[in-house]
Amino acid sequence: MGKACLWYNNVMRLVLFCFAFIILAAPQAQAQNYGVNKPQRINTNLAPLIIPHRQHWGEQRSQYINMDLDDPVPPNIPAVVFKDPVPPKILEDRIDALFYGVNSYIAPEFDVFGYAVRGYMDDVLTPSRMNSPQEALDEYKNIRRARIVFDHWQKDLTAQIKSLEAEIEERGAPPRMIGKLTYNKGIIEAFMADMDAWLAANQAMAEFYISKSGQFEIVYPVYYFLNNADQQEFASLYEARILALTQMQTHSLFAKMIY
Question: Is 229 within the bounds of a domain?
């Protein structure tokens, strides 16, 4: 089962990457021919990019340039009042608790780190809002807040793992318990690397939107740019973001994230 899941995840990453590359690299019509999705704020003759979110996949390219699409729908993550979780006392339960908020469900009010990160990132950098420099800046701040939460989460997980390793060594736990901690530690380390890359990819895109304000316009799903260098930079950032998101979605409690 583990090998099958790994194969599936690798295939999905390849499919998403290829789709992004095709959409971004395919020949484009001239901007003035773009139906209802013409730019209103900038005047450019540079052929735009058509980048529908995967919620809107399945249409012909000619349809995308004439469709008035709404932004992708983010997951529903209502605000909660966080409470201190009661830490488990049994060693095996403590090893399992490493997955809380990652791949194991815990009530939102006790999911102090994971739920908070998902709350900051649920609709981050929504396309139509990025035409506004202020909204782009606000989203950048949300990404930074998510980063701060993640930094605390990473320290907490690292401390838990070290504590568990020390306790197992001191108590001489059975091989089954040692193997379980080793496995869980590997999953957690992969998760931390994936989240680091995901937050970094979103931050890089937010910084692009802020620094290039007035030099692009998004009429979702069509992206217009004043110059080719900016368009190419954006395409590269977008592809990196897709790959980071796809990897992040392999962790079950982050599977519904859309950006």
Answer: yes
Structure-derived torsion over alpha carbons of residues 83, 84, 88, 91, reported in degrees to the nearest 10: 130
- Tell how strand 49-50 and strand 216-219 pair up: unpaired
Tokens of 133: 């420099």
- pTM, full prediction: 0.86
The identity of residue 49, as a single letter, is L
- Decide if 196 contacts 151 (C-beta within 8 A): no
The whole domain housing 154 covers 2-254
Q: Running along the chain, 259 residues long, what does each successive block of 10 average in pLDDT? A: 48 50 44 66 90 85 79 94 91 94 95 97 95 97 98 97 93 90 96 98 98 95 95 96 96 95
In a domain? residue 190: yes
Task: State both tokens at 120.
Answer: 């900051």
Beta bridge partners of 100: 104
